[in-house]
From TrEMBL:
The modification 4-aspartylphosphate is found at D54. Keywords: DNA-binding, Phosphoprotein, Transcription, Transcription regulation. SMART domains: HTH_LUXR, REC. SUPFAM superfamilies: C-terminal effector domain of the bipartite response regulators, CheY-like. This is Response regulator transcription factor. One of its GO terms (molecular function) is DNA binding. It comes from the Bacteria. One of its GO terms (biological process) is regulation of DNA-templated transcription. It comes from Nocardioides mesophilus. Residues 145-210 form the HTH luxR-type domain. Residues 3-119 form the Response regulatory domain.
Length: 216
């Protein structure tokens, strides 16, 4: 039996998805959540095989919820529900650990196939999204600062790079599809790891290591 948690704040859409899943043998909808907080709480409590995750929730981004769920329950399959597969947020969600996406308005067969694939440990990517993810991970391999700051996580290095470009927390949050609170937490953590007394010192060290260069 594949267990599924639905995360979306639109009741009519949820009703339709639930009806489609409930009609399939071997699939059980074990819960619904309408915001990020509920999504994380129910995913941790219910441990579903698959979470169908909307990205635009009342109290934040489904991307942040995806990270929180996978930090506690790394085996959970996150399947993003999106209006457009071309949205940059879809790629950001994949980078956060989601295994694929299903476009809102997809047919029942496509939805069930996506759920089954993710539940089995597979991924659901379009060629376009897969290519963009490949570019992202190739870029990480060549990213400046990896040897200079081995104590930082990939996400913290990414935030540090944007800090070194002179971006404020609001712009960093917008570019990385994070909440400002999450960015503040990352900045605080990386300052501690670098033993930098303030943001200015972190910027200076990052630029000496080759970070903070505008692409182009």
């Amino acid at each position: 039996m594949t267990t599924v948690l639905l995360v979306d704040d639109h009741p009519l859409f949820l009703d339709g998805v639930r009806a489609a899943l409930d009609s399939a043998p071997g699939v059980e909808v074990v819960g619904e959540a309408h915001d990020c907080r509920q999504a994380v709480e129910q995913a941790v409590a219910l441990r579903p095989d698959v979470v169908l995750m909307d990205l635009n929730l009342p109290d934040g981004s489904g991307i942040d919820a995806t990270r929180e769920i996978l930090a506690t329950a790394p085996g959970t399959g996150i399947l993003v529900i999106t209006m457009s597969a071309d949205d940059d947020a879809v790629v950001a969600a994949m980078r956060a650990g989601a295994r694929g996406y299903v476009v809102k308005g997809s047919g029942r067969a496509d939805l069930l196939q996506a759920v089954a694939t993710v539940a089995a440990g597979g991924a659901v990517f379009s060629p376009t999204v897969a290519a963009r993810l490949g570019e992202f991970f190739r870029g990480l391999a060549a990213q400046p600062g990896r040897e200079m700051f081995p104590q930082l996580s990939e996400r913290e290095r990414e935030v540090l790079d944007l800090v070194a470009r002179g971006h404020d927390n609001r712009r960093i949050a917008r570019e990385l599809f994070l909440s400002e609170k999450t960015v503040r937490n990352h900045v605080s953590t990386l300052l501690g790891k670098l033993e930098a007394p303030d943001r200015s010192e972190a910027i200076a060290r990052a630029r000496r290591a080759g970070l903070g260069q505008e692409p182009g």
